From TrEMBL:
SUPFAM superfamilies named among the record's database cross-references: EAL domain-like, Nucleotide cyclase
Domain of life: Bacteria
Domain GGDEF intervals: 26-160
Pfam families: EAL (PF00563), GGDEF (PF00990)
Protein name per the record: EAL domain-containing protein
Lineage per the UniProt record: Bacteria, Pseudomonadati, Pseudomonadota, Alphaproteobacteria, Sphingomonadales
Signal sequence segment: none
């Protein structure tokens, strides 16, 4: 019952030990450990390096466990630690935190320094609550995913509400599947205007869910669940296809569609995008795909390959929400963006914060040096519009000029310069959270 690569006890051994080594009066605690970034190691350096990383992590686990606990390799990049005794849970948590400290340092493999992280879930049983080893491991697995959602490189104890959250996710996933089948999704379009002429030069598609009860749900409420359950690929393709069909007859203006991190990690996405362009006849050079920095950091190897294919179609790539992350010049050059969209927070606060204003100006200068256009999003006042126009932004997007609107209302605005007089009324504020929200799909 030993794993051949790591020489650690395997999954079968964990279940056996839970039965044979635990006394009725003992607390049994289990940690489930999932390595973060291991797939990238395999993609970048090959499986022979990945195998060596597994061996190094196994040695690290033996070191932190000592004689108090037993490490296991469950398969792939999943490990576990089991421990029984009066204070098993407390001691095991300390062991896991020690492991995370060690993993915060790079691992030497051949002539490389490999960075790897971990997300850890913890679960325990007591004489009053004695689930079998399979249930205990399931609880640890649920807690591990809570650690991943919480930002990784952390450990989380299982709580009963995690299961309730899973039930809610399952329920919404079922509703989203029905929504896709029953045509409950809607797209609205928010125009972008040229900073000089104030003519509409592009529209951004924004996804909405109109439930059977008439309630309109913004993407922030359901896209994360669609990403987690895998449904985002089907929803995202629907958004792309429908947006291309809607915008086909809108002259030469560009269409901007948000692509989620999960879509970009799907190696089939570029092929599906090419099929949609062929099916709809939409000119590839009029299509902008908006992606966030997070989408690229999560799996940069797959992302770069996908973006190379996408650019080969003639499609433009836009970095969205710029100013909220840590993108460097090297990062921007690596992914060769066509445009930066300055995040709303940078625009809104620049007038009162000199350091943010300097950041905005330097971001625009950097974009110019890299031959990128710049859009300021979330512009709500004339003062903000004057600021970003003077700073050199090419396009402006925001409530000052246009709110999001159905496809049927776009054409009447295409030939008329925006006046900037669409001031924020009290009624506007009631829908602000959805009109300024990114589609992320």
């Amino acid at each position: 019952m030993t794993d051949s690569l790591s020489a650690l006890p395997n999954r079968r051994a964990l279940h056996h030990h839970a039965i044979t080594r635990t006394k009725d009066s003992d607390e049994l605690a289990v940690a489930l450990i999932d390595l973060d970034g291991f797939k990238i190691v395999n993609d970048l350096y090959g499986h022979h390096v990945g195998d060596q990383v597994i061996k190094e992590v196994a040695a690290m686990l033996r070191s932190v466990c000592g004689k108090d606990a037993v490490p296991y390799r469950l398969g792939g990049d999943e490990f576990a630690i089991g421990m029984a005794g009066p204070l098993a849970g407390t001691i095991l948590e300390g062991i896991c935190r020690n492991l995370l400290d060690k993993l915060s340092q790079t691992i030497p493999v051949q002539d490389r320094r490999i960075g790897i992280g971990a997300s850890i879930g913890l679960a325990r049983s007591s004489p009053a609550d004695r689930p079998n080893s399979s249930e205990l491991l399931r609880r640890a697995d649920v807690a591990m995913y809570a650690s991943k959602r919480g930002g990784k490189m952390r450990c989380s104890w299982f709580r009963p509400e995690f299961d309730r959250n899973l039930e809610a996710i399952r329920d919404m996933n079922n509703e989203l599947r029905d929504a896709l089948l029953n045509n409950e999704f809607r797209i609205q379009y928010q125009p972008l205007v040229d900073a000089a002429s104030r003519q509409i030069v592009a529209v951004e598609s924004l996804l909405r869910w109109e439930r059977p009860d008439g309630k309109i749900i913004g993407p922030g409420a359901f896209v994360p669940i669609a990403e987690e359950t895998g449904l985002i690929n089907a929803i995202g393709l629907w958004v792309l296809r429908q947006s291309c069909q809607d915008a086909l007859g809108w002259g030469k203006i560009k269409l901007s569609v948000n692509i989620s991190a999960a879509q970009l990690r799907n190696p089939e996405f570029p092929i599906q995008l090419g099929q949609i362009i062929d099916e709809t006849g939409f000119p590839a050079e009029r299509l902008d795909l908006e992606i966030t920095e997070t989408s690229l950091i999560l799996d940069p190897v797959v992302a770069e390959r996908s973006l190379d294919i996408i650019r080969g179609f003639g499609v433009n790539v836009v970095l969205d929400d710029f100013g909220t992350g840590y993108a460097s010049i090297g990062f921007l050059r690596q992914f060769r963006f066509n445009k930066l969209k300055l995040d709303r927070s940078l625009i809104v606060n620049s007038a009162a914060d000199e350091s943010l204003r300097a950041m905005m100006l330097s971001s625009i200068s950097m974009a110019r040096a890299l031959n990128m256009d710049v859009t300021a999003e979330g512009v709500e006042t004339q003062a903000q519009a004057d600021l970003v126009r003077a700073a050199g932004c090419d396009q402006i997007q925001g409530w000052l000029y246009f709110k999001a609107m159905p496809a049927k209302d776009i054409e009447q605005h295409l030939s008329v310069p925006a006046t900037g007089t669409d001031l924020l009324s009290a009624s506007s504020h009631t829908v602000k959270s959805t009109d300024q929200e990114s589609a992320a799909a």
